[in-house]
From TrEMBL:
This is Dihydrofolate reductase family protein. Residues 2-180 form the Bacterial bifunctional deaminase-reductase C-terminal domain. It holds the Pfam family RibD_C. InterPro entries: DHFR-like_dom_sf, RibDG_C, Riboflavin_Biosynth_HTPR. It comes from the Bacteria.
Amino acid sequence: MRKIISFMHISLDGFVAGVNGEMNWIKVDEELFDHVGKRISGTDTALYGRATYQMMEGYWPTAADRPNASKHDIEHSAWYKKIHKLVLSKTLQEADLSDTTIISNNLATRINEIKQQEGKEILLFGSPTATHSLIAENLIDGYWLFVNPIILGQGIPLFKDIKDRIKLNLLMSRQFSNGVTELSYLVDK
């Protein structure tokens, strides 16, 4: 069975974005991009909430075509164009989107059907609202977190309205030279 892994940058105090959705506090560099690029290259499906998907669609399909495209832009653009995208949205229409499946209702049933299909792990990128919906339905199998060395004090939390404890098993951790710490967990089901 395929697993859904939530991929997030997070502040030390548990926020994935500032109060207004700002993410300018996230530390990224070539070392981090290369590491993430290796891991996601083995993934064939990405899961997004509507807002994150629209942000990704607005940049990644043509990012490699820009004259000043970085190595990361070129590699991630190629990856983005070849993967299947799942989007949680009640407003987007599937008809005009290529290699994209919209999930607008019956979340648990639809996601469990997709998890039974052939394929590799499904990476849930950012998308705090989608993450909250999937946590509520007990559909996330793991967390791939990049803890940034900052305390925001307030913002959009990764975890909210948790009704039952979620036990995790640490698979690995890694410290990057920019101060970010990677933590990879599987949910103990």
